[in-house]
């Protein structure tokens, strides 16, 4: 029976995670969004602290989105990861060079 695979081979090819991790990631994303909104809405918090906190929460949010919703944590996603990193590098280079150009 050439068309049949053993149970070990099936597990090796595809492992279903189930909804538990997705629900946890969704709740964590909503929690980060609510915290960010509350910090900005409060208005009496130091502006520098708010900026730094928002950037840090945005970075955590990006990693949650990439890891759990786009499945970048799984094997076989090296090309999308390299593409995203190259895009980030190009954008940062453009922003830094534009700042440098505008400054002088």
TrEMBL record:
Record organism: Paenibacillus lignilyticus
Keyword Amino-acid biosynthesis: no
Keyword Kinase: no
Location, primary (coarse class): membrane
Descriptive protein name: Cytochrome C oxidase subunit IV family protein
PANTHER family in UniProt: CYTOCHROME BO(3) UBIQUINOL OXIDASE SUBUNIT 4 (PTHR36835)
Pfam families recorded: COX4_pro (PF03626)
InterPro entries assigned: Cyt_c_oxidase_su4_prok, Cytochrome_c_oxidase_bac_sub4
Record's keyword terms, sorted: Cell membrane, Membrane, Transmembrane, Transmembrane helix
């Amino acid at each position: 029976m050439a068309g049949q695979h053993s149970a070990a081979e099936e597990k090796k090819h595809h492992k279903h995670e189930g909804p538990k991790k997705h629900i946890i990631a969704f709740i964590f994303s909503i929690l980060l969004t609510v915290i960010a909104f509350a910090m900005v809405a409060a208005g009496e918090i130091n502006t520098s602290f708010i900026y730094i906190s928002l950037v840090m929460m945005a970075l955590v949010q990006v990693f949650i989105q990439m890891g759990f919703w786009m499945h970048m944590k799984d094997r076989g996603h090296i090309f999308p990861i390299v593409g995203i990193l190259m895009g980030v590098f190009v954008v940062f280079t453009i922003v830094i060079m534009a700042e440098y150009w505008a400054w002088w």
